């Protein structure tokens, strides 16, 4: 198992190299001249040329990419065009905030989504099932930047219960300030997970081994959790892993709505100011996060499904 | 119960349509979408016929005296921060969501579909190279990828289209490859090959029609995603810019006023939600109709 | 009469789906004595599995529903029991072996745990070690070494899986075993082994068995009485001797005609013409009338009763109406 994890971690390296290459390539298509952005409109042609040379912009793309990767390996993502601070420092500063928000979002998705999915599947075609599934469909369809605004309207403006902006300091305020953003961020995923759980459970409910379990005389509770849910879990875990990607994309929007000091907001701000190294740093870090989460998902699989685990053993 | 039927393509699609029609929610989604398409076409026609006069008079003209006024008989959806009629702006905004989403998805469907079919059909090196590349693209969440592309190219309508189009390529490539792979090894392909069909005939006569169902479903759901992404980018100020009445951009403006007037926030969001909802309903209905085995 | 273990009276089960109502089982009456084996024979879709699940009250609902009838088990009507009482019966008194061993084991549980689960459910006072020991004994009993307790189903072959399923079914020494085509999904060579094993264990514990199959040969080897089922109705019912030596119902005749025989030198097997009627639109009269060479207008209009001949041999066919009286 340990060997497998190490192997998978090593396999991440080409993925991250690929991701950075694509992002690097895309962002360097940018028509703006970084030197002009840094020095402003009044800069002379010579000053611009000097700046370009200093930034290495005159080198071919591939050389610059290799330079960037060498820097990345040393924890150096370059300097911000705007204020020449280390991109790495800024990104690392914001990373925990986004990670926290995303984790809470996933938590919301699981805590709401899985029970609803289970109940819906167990009571298929009942009123409860219909209501839940309509709710889930509406939930999937709500743009999170809109539901965020609605939540702020209700819980901050009208009821005054929860803060609408920023991240609280200290445990209590932090938790309070996390509620609305995580619900906003997790809601789409919760709806997705509920739908996935339901269909996956329904798939399992018809299996023969459920009949076998019932024929043993075990209680419905055991049938539901021990036999159905454990088998239904694999597609659910996949869905949750993929949802994490949506969540990171959604984090940009939710962080903007709630002025949450995370990577997403950092990225959006810097797109507007054309600060390419900053944007690049944000994308690379978020994509790496997503890749790592998918690795974790793969590892969780092997604990849930013995068939996958024995494949590993063979592979070793 | 399986009923014996002649298994021609036509009856397959007719069967699917019959099942789809029975699904009331999916039909509701379809009808709402048709309505949206009608609105989009009608507003474009009005713009062309009146040479944007109507647009300038009713959609973008400001009336600062009546700014942020709630819904009234004269303005059923109320007025925005410049006193513009929100109903008109909503109607004129349909095209951005629908047509732009549609174009982006068609683009990614063609490119992604072609790549996926190549990978699936020829396998080996082509498959490995293409799919590794797609895996890498998939490692970047699509909204993030789209944002990065817009960041590089700048915010314009075409760039948003390109960004979203590219962001959805890997999804389609995967879907198409998977269905090609399942169809490829079926015996009827073997049979077609044995009677002397060449690759092109096999791909277009046998594989494409048989891989169609998952692609259609994926396209419907992809369109929903694309519309959401367009609105999201515009909301962030990275997509379509005000005063264009795009729904996401309208919401972005509304953020500054929602403490004073609920309708400026609620209505554009509702528009996006209903559009996405109807697409999702349709997607679910299509999936059930096209693949009855998957129906629960 | 006290040795009658199972007494099914007039059991009817329907499935209500979007495509219409399927009458899967219509007025079935069967009896089974302690330790006795009853073979239930019919084509795919005739309602055999429905009947078996009906006895267990494991009809998936929706779409299935038991509309009428009684099932007396040891003198008690199962249909009147609470769900909790029913659970106490399942696995303990009545066990079931399902058709396909490949899918009837939970893929994410070790086989040992799956056997232990039925033991601990019905003997909750046992310690973990004790129940594990019993489960290991069951494994040994069906011919699997106890060291494979912690293996998962995917590590077993089909025949081995069916042995595990049998171990689960017999772990609590039930009075009644319902075996739903226990060998259909297995290789021919394994089939005989599995049947022999079931038979041995059954004799050892004096377990009664309802053996569902479409294989008349299997019935001949394993059963004391036979019921033939067609389109949801029992059409012929009697002892093995009666049914095999004195075929009454035209459908049974057809069934036997489709079995290859060594003693006759026929070139082709006689197949029954036509197909089983669409279960959502069953004919009003005799369900077999359309395929029956003896059919009369009356057969098509009116459903024949179950006529009992003098020796207790029962048949659902007008041709024996007079004889029965």
From TrEMBL, chain A:
Residues 95-301 form the ABC transmembrane type-1 domain. SUPFAM superfamilies: MetI-like. The chain crosses the membrane at residues 9-27, 99-121, 133-159, 171-194, 233-258, 278-304. Pfam families: BPD_transp_1 (PF00528), BPD_transp_1_N (PF19300). It is found in: Cell membrane. CDD domains: TM_PBP2 (cd06261). InterPro entries: BPD_transp_1_N (IPR045621), MetI-like (IPR000515), MetI-like_sf (IPR035906). It is a multi-pass membrane protein. One of its GO terms (cellular component) is plasma membrane. It comes from the Bacteria. Keywords: Cell membrane, Membrane, Transmembrane, Transmembrane helix, Transport. The keyword 4Fe-4S does not apply. GO terms for molecular function: dipeptide transmembrane transporter activity. Belongs to the binding-protein-dependent transport system permease family. This is ABC transporter permease.
UniProtKB/TrEMBL annotation, chain B:
Belongs to the binding-protein-dependent transport system permease family. It is found in: Cell membrane. Signal peptide: none annotated. GO terms for cellular component: plasma membrane. Keywords: Cell membrane, Membrane, Transmembrane, Transmembrane helix, Transport. PROSITE patterns: ABC_TM1 (PS50928). The keyword Lipid biosynthesis does not apply. This is ABC transporter permease. Its main location: membrane. It comes from Candidatus Avoscillospira avistercoris.
